[in-house]
Amino acid sequence: MLHLILADAELETVPREIAPHRIFAWQARRRGRLPTELLLDSSLHHLAMRGLRDADRRGRPDIAHVCLQLALDSPLNRGGQLRLYVHTRHNKLITIDPATRIPHAYNRFVGLIEHLFLTGTAPPEKPLLRLEDAPLAETIARIKPARVISFNERGEKKLFSELFRGLSKGDEACVVIGGFPHGDFLSDVRELSNELVCIDPDLLTAPTVTARAIYAYEDAFGTQTLRFTR
């Protein structure tokens, strides 16, 4: 089983210190929500975010949107061998049921996540996403993986075909991928990992790393072969 954690993801509702900005008042009225119930999005809210700490990396729900779509649509997930989690900068943890189908339309995804932050579960008719308070260390401790591999540009250089060498199919493997556009992890990933790995000389985006990590696991344990021979 592969457990994939999108860690320190820049997925959050509008912080109280910038909620009075007029851009949120207009959007909140149109959406029927309070300003602090809206999902922070730098493409829409960049003017209000100028005085926000770490403003240059925050408000990026699009990263989680693309990563979740890629992961949930993978043969590994359809084969029941993938578990997905999104851990946010505020130590919120979203656990995603493998049967979840993330909306392709970005505005529908935003509405889904806003409902999740408001109620703790989503969608309302059949909860498949659950939200709780949990730091990254606690999340990894629950999984009890045989190996934790975190991706970092300063990690040991490896081919992605080498990532899961030494693990057996029955082992619980965990990969940690940064859910932010640039910079470093906010959590102490080095302390929580068995190894930090770099799989490309260029800086890769989170969706690209997500796709490669899943493919590497599929390739290492013959997921495609097993699915063809069923």
Describe this structure in words.
- There is one protein chain.
- The chain is built from nine helices and eight strands.
- The chain is of the alpha/beta class and 230 residues long.
- The chain has one domain (2-11, 58-229): 3-Layer(aba) Sandwich (Alpha/beta knot), CATH 3.40.1280.
- α3 packs parallel to α8 (206-220).
Quick description:
With 230 residues, the chain is an alpha/beta fold. It has helices at residues 22-31, 42-45, 61-72, 75-78, 106-119, 136-143, 189-192, 206-220, 223-229, and strands spanning 2-9, 82-88, 92-96, 121-122, 129-133, 147-157, 173-178, 195-198.
How much of the residues is beta strand, in percent?
Answer: 15-25%
C-alpha Rg, in Å? 18 Å
CATH architectural type: 3-Layer(aba) Sandwich
Mean pLDDT: 94
Order of helices and strands: EHHHHEEHEEHEEHEHH
Q: Major sheet: order of its strands?
A: 4-5-3-2-1-7-6-8
Oligomer: single chain
User: How many distinct folded domains?
Assistant: 1
> Are there runs of 5+ residues with pLDDT below 50, and where?
none
Q: CATH class, please?
A: Alpha Beta
Question: How are the secondary structure elements laid out?
Answer:
Layout: E1 2-9, H1 22-31, H2 42-45, H3 61-72, H4 75-78, E2 82-88, E3 92-96, H5 106-119, E4 121-122, E5 129-133, H6 136-143, E6 147-157, E7 173-178, H7 189-192, E8 195-198, H8 206-220, H9 223-229
Descriptors for this entry?
34% helix; alpha/beta; 8 strands; 230 residues
